[in-house]
Amino acid sequence: QGQVVESGGGLVQPGGSLRLSCRGPRYISSTFWGSTMSWYRQAPGNQRELVATFTSDRRTNYADSVKGRFTISKDGAKKMLYLQMNNLKPEDTAVYYCHSQRPSGDVDWGQGTQVTVSS
Q: What does the pLDDT look like over 91-110, one tens digit per residue?
């Protein structure tokens, strides 16, 4: 805990956009790029689900429910992981978590950021 920190959640209307950010302030460059980093989300009453992944070999994967709407990316200069979310739907409402599996195999979770899609 505490190795990655999310920001950028909030309230948005259906069809709107948000960008989530996740930083690893203690990560050095090799750790940042060598980590497989993902976004998960958990809605009330539901299990935590995988939304998108940026692998250590720079491939991206998405849940079917967000394909074509969400984009995961990394900025090495800022050591930031992003999740650009477009055309948001009420069913995207959840707490979004940043997850990082470091090259050592250790795992970091962020504290979560709330995204609410509602008119």
A: 999 999 999 999 988 999 99
